[in-house]
Design brief:
By secondary structure, the chain is α+β, with helices and mostly antiparallel strands. The chain folds into 3 domains: about 45 residues, no CATH class; about 240 residues, no CATH class; about 140 residues, no CATH class. It contains 19 helices and 8 strands. The strands form 2 sheets. Strands 3-4-7-6-5-8 form a 6-stranded mixed beta sheet, with helices on both faces. Strand 3 and strand 4 form a beta hairpin. Helix 14 runs antiparallel to helix 15. The longest helix has 22 residues. The termini are far apart.
Length: about 525
């Protein structure tokens, strides 16, 4: 239709008419118009932008702030490339095999739609990395002892993997972690769990705190004090945890060439130091005292144990007579001067002190309450005992019980409420000196807990004695909490190494057993640097 136009003649094509016309367009036509307009606006904005994504400002026409529309780059050319170090960290964190890591990389490439999403050469990198410490380790057939069901002790041959030169290996680790020679603390761990006797080592900062490695990057996301940075120095499977076997495994390496502290449970600590078990008359690792621990006793030193063990052997070496020699029956397997106190070499193991004391409190409460009431309450509260540890609470369950002591107090009969108080007192000790930070008043918390135990008329066990008398001495002298020397990392090594070993495992009589055990240790350690 023709419209007359001219001066003084009203025109029908105003803004409102244009908007009405646009509203009559089909959705696809409206998209075409909007797309063309936005492209123009974004192209203009892109010219004036300084490397940032182009943003177009659109006025609504009805007032208010303009709408900001930003262009999104849908190309794959800007997808960040995942580096070898990141894939290495993923492999270590998730305990993946090399093939599983390569498969994960393929999934990432497919999901991103970009073949370059992973740094090229990953397969070659992983195979090379997995052999980086191979020249430090060897495997040999060694003789260990085994106790038959009849009680007879026999010798058996076992393949043992060990580090050929620990000093050079540690220097290699420190150089790759960017740690100076005198700026690290070495924590040697020995344990017989997981069906194998292992000697492990952690290389941490000299202050003992679990700081990260100084070299930046994804592969260093793990704490130097954690299990993902721990190394297996030696391992042998299916042997008894005893003095002779530990001595044989330790003889494969020179541990006198470096300074370290030992992290292990009390049972193995006594074995290594040549002292009889906690069932003996003088069971304490740190002094020559005996129950009921009311008389001060001399501190144990390497020299005193060596002297008493030698006298015991000269007297015939009959086990019942060991109590006359402070139950020292073997020369300590640890190097050092005669004047070195054992507590300097083997700091009090905070995990096993907690396990022993918390389980003791729960068991005694259950006995006095009757009808397994304490066990039933604990089970109802989600605090479960592990049957393979003789029905004992493990670390997480112990902590849970300590944190729920207030709830327990609410339901306990009046004459048993002090057990809940004892648990609360011990939890205060855990927070004050069992972590990484030593509280100024830690000794007061220990004294308070000791008073509570006396009120409950509890017999003092060797672990309680260690807490009451030796933990304050060690923490005051070192100025550090027990967490810096904890054996927890060594305990975690069993399951962590098992994930690697299961990919290499062969039966004992298999011709590839020894070689595969060596390869498992090499691969595990290579990815823990």
């Amino acid at each position: 239709m023709l419209v007359t136009s001219g001066a003084g003649v009203r025109h029908e094509c105003g803004q409102a008419a244009k908007l009405r016309y646009l509203s009559t367009l089909s959705p696809s036509s409206m998209e075409h118009v909007a797309c063309s307009f936005l492209r123009e606006k974004l192209n203009a904005a892109d010219v004036s932008s300084s490397g940032d994504a182009a943003t177009a400002s659109l006025s609504s026409g009805f007032g208010g702030h303009p709408i900001q529309v930003q262009a999104v780059d849908t190309s794959t050319s800007h997808v960040p490339q995942m580096l070898h170090s990141t894939m290495r960290a993923m492999k270590t964190a998730l305990n993946l095999s090399t093939n599983q890591t390569i498969q994960a990389a393929q999934v990432i490439r497919e999901a991103s739609g970009n073949r370059k999403a992973i740094q090229p050469g990953l397969k070659e990198f992983l195979f090379s990395e997995g052999q980086s410490v191979a020249h430090f380790f060897a495997v040999e057939q060694l003789q260990f002892i085994c106790k038959q069901p009849s009680g007879q002790v026999i010798s058996i041959d076992r393949s043992a993997v060990f580090c050929c030169n620990v000093s050079e290996f540690l220097a290699y680790v420190c150089s790759l972690r960017g740690m100076a020679e005198m700026e690290h603390h070495l924590k040697l761990g020995i344990d017989g769990g997981g069906n194998s006797l292992k000697i492990c080592i952690s290389v941490t900062d000299s202050d003992g705190l679990p700081a990260q490695a100084s070299m930046p990057g994804p592969s260093n996301r793990f704490l130097n004090s954690g299990v993902k940075k721990l190394f297996v120095l030696a391992i042998v499977e299916d042997v008894k945890e005893c003095y002779e076997n530990v001595k044989t495994l330790l003889s494969t390496m020179d541990i006198s060439s470096f300074l370290f502290t030992l992290a292990c449970d009390f049972k193995l600590a006594n074995i290594i130091c040549g002292i009889q078990s906690h069932a003996s008359t003088h069971p304490c690792l740190y002094c020559e005292g005996k129950s009921p621990w009311t008389t001060p006793a001399p501190s144990r030193t390497l020299g005193s144990v060596r002297r008493l063990a030698n006298e015991f052997q000269l007297a015939g070496g009959h086990q019942p007579a060991a109590k006359h020699f402070a139950n020292c029956v073997q020369s300590p397997l640890l190097p050092g001067l005669d004047s070195t106190e054992l507590i300097e070499l083997v700091p009090p193991p905070e995990l096993h002190i907690m396990l022993g004391i918390v389980n003791r409190l729960l068991d005694e409460l259950n006995n006095r309450w009757g009808n397994d009431m304490a066990y039933k309450w604990a089970h109802g509260a989600g605090i479960c005992r592990q049957q393979y540890h003789g029905g004992c609470l493990e670390g997480p369950a112990c902590k849970k019980l300590l944190l729920k002591a207030g709830e327990l107090w609410n339901i306990l009969p009046a004459h048993l409420k002090m057990f809940a108080v004892a648990l609360q007192d011990f939890n205060a000790i855990r927070l004050a000196c069992f972590g990484q930070t030593l509280a100024n008043d830690f000794a007061l918390h220990i004294a308070r807990f000791q008073t509570t135990c006396q009120f409950l008329q509890l017999n003092v066990t060797p672990k309680m004695h260690a807490l009451f008398h030796h933990v304050p001495t060690f923490c005051s002298k070192s100025g550090k909490a027990l967490g810096s020397f904890s054996e927890q990392t060594v305990e975690s090594a069993h399951s962590d190494f098992e994930a690697t070993w299961q990919r290499y495992r062969r039966p004992f009589n298999h011709p590839q057993y020894a070689a595969n055990l060596l390869q498992a240790v090499v691969n595990y350690n290579s990815f823990h640097i």
